Amino acid sequence: MRKYIGSPALFSLKLSCLLPFAVLAPPVLAQEQGDIPDESLQRPSNQAENQADDLYEIIVTGQGLPETPAAPAYSVRDLEREQIVGSPSGRLEDVLASVAGFQQFRRSDSRSSNPSAQGVTLRALGGNATSRALVLLDGVPVADPFFGYIPFTAIAPERLGQVRVTRGGGAGPFGAGALAGTIELTSADAATLGPVNAAALVNDRGGTEASINFAPELGRGFAVVGGRYDRGPGFFTTPSDQRAAASARSEFESYSGQIRAVAPVGAGIELQARVLAFADDRTLRFEGADSSSSGQDASLRLVRRGDWQVDALAYVQARNFSNVVISSTRFTRVLDQRNTPSTGLGGKIEIRPPVGSDHVLRAGADYRRAKGELQEEAYSAFSGNLTERRRAGGTNSDVGLFLEDDWTLGRLVVTGGLRADYTRIADGFFIARDASGETVTKLNAPNRSDWTFTWRGGAAWQTSDTLRLRAAFYRGLRLPTLNELYRPFVVFPVVTQANAALRNEILEGYEAGFDLTPAPGVELSLTAFDNRVEDAIANVTLTPLLRERQNLPAIAARGLEIGAALSRGQFALDATLALTDAEVEGRGPSLELDGNRPPQTPSFAAAANLAWKPRPDWLLSATLRHVGKQFESDVETDRLPAATTIGALAQLPLGGKLSLVLRGENLTGETIVTRNSGGSVDLGAPRTLWAGLRFGY
């Protein structure tokens, strides 16, 4: 593998990431109880006594503004910390798979897939590897600026306190990315993490996983300093009967380090700052088929609570990606995507003015900008000589304005919101030169911009203490990524061409359902939905060895989402099921695909988690995941069979805060086919057994 971890440059980078917090720390440390030097906060007398008490009650949460009354109108699934840290694999993507309907483009996890295939979506709105769901970490978008994938290895589950998945098109802040829904990741605070927690595990193939988090309280604020390191020799993704001398295990090595600080800066106002650095190296299928991804992110967030509520944030992302493609017939290098630097910038401001106890009004604006460039070289599979040098890239930007209101009328909540997005696709280019430097292909894509209006609305009616009825409708937007517009790619021998003329995707949909609590500790939910993505971007087959990204007329998805939760004493069960009928529809250049199911899209998915806590410091849990059969591509020739996996976790106290941890992935040894191209197959993780120690969990 290409090695970047532990290099002097990255050490310097990680050290530089600490500098903003060195500046932030002194005022945080200085704010001891009762030490408020600002005279404007001194206690007034007489009639202002009660107001002063409110000023002195400084509560730092590290979170955003409180949930609005509109949330029950949509199909929402919450995952609490015990379920987040109880995953048999210890991977965030496995945690999210607890919500049926969540999927990555491929079934493989972040140890044995190409990072650029880690796009996430909901409701079977698949088609390519780009995320159609908006993923936020403490309110900040985390998708890669160039590719749109989610860097799962950068986000350690043990640093999270809660996960909320809202299915259906979004509006509100950063709503232009929430085509299929929104996944909100909330970091755990110091009270949840404790002063220190750590874990170290090893598996039966020699893989290791280690993490540590320090979470000291600093005056009235707190900080969380954490790191995680994973490595392993991996497994053969190639079936034994298809292996060659060049076949290799899916070796991987990754780290993620984060510093997060939260401090009060006034009465009811807190500042949240985070710096994150990560790197990830993988080998896929063949010796020399190495990929790497890395990034450095920083964000600042200011939250004001009280009558006038404000949530303002700004962020910057610096990311890179590289990938080497090896011929599956001659086992030589045919493509070196050696450098793909990209930068993401953005921010938002949301204001909630006091408009009466019956209304929650949200108004604001957000901005996102992605800039990146591909730098790659192509080589002859026969001679190994350089044949082409290619460069491609551009800039995408989005300015959004949003307005939403939730109106509470007794047991009925009505919500509605509008959003206007000014999107711009600019500076796009692609140029290819031969080995002598002569230009072979050159494209300068015209700049284009547009205004798009989207909306969402809904109602939730609490008919009784046990039953809530809800309905919603929405219109959502997604821009094509720089990757889709300008970067061709190869999964040898199939070439997929980019398309600089791609149009924005537009989703329109509606849903209705209910939430039922027939008895204490028993929760049932059902949602019926109908979503349609116009101009859906997909990898369209032109010939057996050539595809192109195109706007399909539409992808329609209709289905049911069912959820159940049961809590009885020491036992807890959480289960979800998704039934989806998804198909390509419409006329035009993709007429031959009309009625086909989108690639990588199952019609049935289910997940369940059963936990038993015989004592407060014990945990025994088992998980079930089922994914129905899928097609590899849009022409429905190669199938990926259905797969059912079972995992388990046991956490047993050894004394004090130290526990023994035993984990098992895919305990039945299910064969998980993740790719099938004309019979050439890749496999997912086999049975894997882990053992180790945890402290402070």
* Helix content class: under 10%
Beta fraction: over 45%
In total, the number of domains comes to 1
Mean pLDDT: 89
Q: List how many beta strands DSSP finds.
A: 40
Largest sheet: 25 strands, antiparallel
The first-to-last residue Cα distance is 33 Å
Class derived from helix and strand content: mainly beta
Could you name the ranges where pLDDT drops below 50 across 5 or more consecutive residues?
2-56
The rough form would be described as: globular
The CATH homologous superfamily: TonB-dependent receptor, beta-barrel domain
CATH class: Mainly Beta
**CATH fold title:** Maltoporin, Chain A
Radius of gyration, Cα only, in angstroms? 25 Å
- What would you say the CATH architecture is? Beta Barrel
- List the total number of helices: 7
Keyphrases for this structure?
5-stranded mixed sheet; 697 residues; disordered N terminus; single chain; Maltoporin, Chain A; 25-stranded antiparallel sheet; globular; mainly beta; 40 strands
Could you walk me through the main structural features you see in this protein, from its secondary elements to its overall organization?
This protein has 697 residues and is mainly beta. The protein has one domain (8-234, 241-320, 330-368, 381-695): Beta Barrel (Maltoporin, Chain A), CATH 2.40.170.20. It contains seven helices and 40 strands. It has a 25-stranded antiparallel β-sheet that branches. Strand 13 (269-283) and strand 14 form a beta hairpin. The chain is globular. 48% of the residues are buried. Residues 2-56 have low confidence and may be disordered.
